[in-house]
Amino acid sequence: MSVSLEKGIHALKEVIDAPIASYFESCVHCGLCAEACLFYTETGDPKYTPIHKVEPLRRVYEQEYTLLGRLKKMVGLSKPVTDAELDQWQELVYDSCTMCGRCSLICPVGNDIVYMVRKLREGMAVSGHVPDGIKSATKRTVELGGPMGLKWPAVANVLRKAEEATGLRIPIDQPGADYLVLLSSMEIVNYPEYIEALAKIFHKAGISFTLASDAFEATNAGIQIGNSDLARVIVSRIVDAAEKLKVKNVLSPECGHAYMAIRWEGPNLIGRPFTFNVVHVLELLDELRQKGVLKMKDKLKDPLILHDPCQIVRRGGVLQAPEPLIQQVAENYIPIVDKQKWNWCCGGGGGASAIHTEPAEALRAKAFKIKKRQIEEAGVGTMVTFCANCRITMEEGFDHYEMDTKLLGLTELLAEHLED
Amino acid sequence: MNELQFLTWVRGPGLDIAVGIFLLGVVWRLLEIYTLGRRKDLAAPRHAAGASGLHTVFRRSLPPQGMLKRSPVSYIGGYLFHVGLAIVVFLFAPHILLVTNLTGLSWPGLPSQFVDLVAVVTMAAMVVVLVDRINKPAKRFLSTFEDWFTWAVTFLPVLTGWMAVQHLLLPYTTMLALHILSVEVLLVVLPFTKLFHAFTLFGSRWYNGKANAQRGVPV
User: Fold this and answer.
1) Is the pLDDT of residue A146 over 70?
2) One domain, residues A123 and A145
3) Residues of B with CB below 8 A from A317's CB?
4) Whole-angstrom Cα distance, residue A196 to residue A161?
5) End-to-end CA distance of chain B
6) Which residues are B215's β-sheet partners?
7) pLDDT value of residue A197
8) Which chain B residues are Cβ-neighbours of A316 within 8 angstroms?
9) What's the confidence (pLDDT) of residue A145?
10) Number of neighbours of residue A45 by Cβ within 10 angstroms
11) Closest CA to B43 of A250, A141, A209
12) Cβ <8 Å between A109 and B140
């Protein structure tokens, strides 16, 4: 057994807890989780059945924690987990799992399968069986501050441009602010309008905010790869900055995994509750809407549907804010059947969008057929969402299928129609 | 060993051994699983109506949105054979009598003809879900020896019990003895196979419901 495999198996033994054991014991192989997974529904390939994706973890559980499994292992009747197998499983744990968590909502015996995948990724990461795309994104985040290798001077440059465009000051490293604003690299690079939108809204609402030059990046590639040590390093940067600046709240950007990382995994990674609140930007906007601060000068007329990003809605719990917000700014919002916590993933979450191998990209395109269908069934030309990663993935999907669907970010859309 | 000796054995020492393994097995497995513990969630909880472990324990008994249409055989077949099994096992007068003799507990049963009908429906539903397991790609792909074996181990007590009551194929005494033996096999196998979901599914649903309730998501 290689040293890295030994470490990987050890990591898996460490993550197995009572819920994982209970889940494995409860599984009756009914296969219904397959019906919840877009990689199965769009390909029909049974290897994408969610519970099958955690098979190596099941065997480690059986061989290490059950009486019969240990007996079988002693007499050599059990199949050990090998490097070759984990290598083969990379496709199932990363390429074809976006950690969207839809399977966890479906399982009749109640298994939280996405929780199991997250745990299996710990062992995959430690044993080195992670797609190169995610590995290098993680490395860049740790060494340079963000997954795209973005450094502060470049960010400061974008902020300066946003100041010029809006005529508003964007405070940096200001202690005691109401909100410490976090960004995702994708927003900084591809959707700088987000920053302008926020500045306008904060100014209008009279809320103080700041950015931190040593903690601007909210995304956490350590979580996507499944490496808790790295994830802790990345999240600590934000916690340190928030505590140093003594801010009341930390504002998570639209980005789904960023929110998951800071809001739900963050305190567990550093081993203590935060001294500040973590608020998703849509929660803040909905609060402002309810207070009557978020008034629109006009509304968008185009018929549109909403794409609820998995990590923010189904897994993040921001269930109620998106719909009233879209209704605030859109006249012809059409609710789709599988909306809110039932929505289908864009196909690029959980780090999948960072994997640029040919098979992974082809698989993503296939999985995207479900979004294509949702758009076509609703008969709309516009879709609104609130996650930079979903946007990138879906833009790729539109390109692939040569669709002329317009994709808009909810926060920007609100800012665009905000009363002056 | 003649028929009577066989029946005497399965009713006496056989039953004692099976019930003993079953009870010890259940306790052992429950300890093995639930003493593993879990870490406390340190993130500040978000509260939402309908989100809790207990809610999920009950909610998962119903098909989630859109699923009945996607997999009707799993749900309808599944309901029929689970409810059928419960009726046959717990509401057949001779079964109640057995429990009364062992423990003194007693409850009203259902008419024999009705239980007969339920047994037939249960067996039919079990055959249908078996065929579904062979037909559906995901189900077939996941299936191992254990899936076919546990199906047989669950089916045989119903079949032999029904045949004993109907006086089919073999003399009543022999069929009854086979029926009891098949139940004993089921009892011995249950704690150590996927049949143990009968105990763990409550824990699983609760953990899932609880973890998601922390985030304010009713699952």
Assistant:
1) no
2) no
3) 46, 48, 212, 215-217
4) 9
5) 55
6) none
7) 84
8) 215
9) 59
10) 16
11) A250
12) no
A105 and B56 within 8 Å at the Cβ level: the answer is: no
Number of domains chain A contains: 3
On the question of pLDDT at A95 being above 90, the answer is: yes
On whether both A372 and A242 belong to a single domain, the answer is: no
Residues spanned by the domain of A150: 133-288
Average pLDDT, stretch B104-119? 96
A268, A288, A308 - which closes a domain? A288
Q: Any CB–CB contact under 8 A between B144 and chain A? A: yes
- On whether both A269 and A166 belong to a single domain, the answer is yes
Domain ranges of chain B: 3-34+65-214
CATH number at residue A409: 3.40.50
Taking an 8 Å cut-off on Cβ atoms, the answer to whether B138 and A337 are in contact is no
Residue A147, pLDDT above cutoff 70: no
- Same domain assignment for residues A274 and A344: no
CA distance A362 to A374: 20
The model's pLDDT over B34-78, given as tens digits with 9 standing for 90+, comes to 999 999 999 999 999 999 999 999 999 999 999 999 999 999 999
Positive/negative CA dihedral, A262, A268, A270, A272 = positive
Find, in chain B, the residue whose alpha carbon is nearest to that of A51.
B142
Picking from B65, B78, B206, the nearest residue to A342 by CB comes out as: B65
A111 vs B contacts (CB less than 8 Å)? 204, 208
B145 at the A interface (CB within 8 A)? no
pTM for the full model? Answer: 0.94
Fold of B3-34+65-214: Fumarate Reductase Cytochrome B subunit (1.20.950)
Q: Output the pLDDT for position B3.
A: 86
Q: Would the CB atoms of B48 and A317 count as touching at under 8 Å?
A: yes
Question: Does one domain contain both A322 and A335?
Answer: yes
Same domain membership, residue A260 and residue A208: yes
Q: Where are the alpha helices (DSSP H) in A271-316?
A: 281-290
Q: Is the pLDDT of residue A287 over 90?
A: yes
B65:A274 CB<8 A: no
ipTM: 0.96
Burial of A13 (0-12, 13-18, 19+ CB in 10 A): middle
Whether the CB-CB separation of A210 and A199 falls below 8 Å is answered with: no
- What is the Cα–Cα distance from A263 to A272, expressed in whole angstroms? 13
Say whether pLDDT at B219 is over 70. yes
B contact test, residue of A12, A20, A26 with most B CBs within 10 A: A26
Asked if A121 has any chain B CB less than 8 Å from its own CB, the reply is: no
The residue among A96, A113, A129 that closes a domain is A129
Same domain, A88 and A209: no
Domain of residue A173, CATH code: 1.20.1050
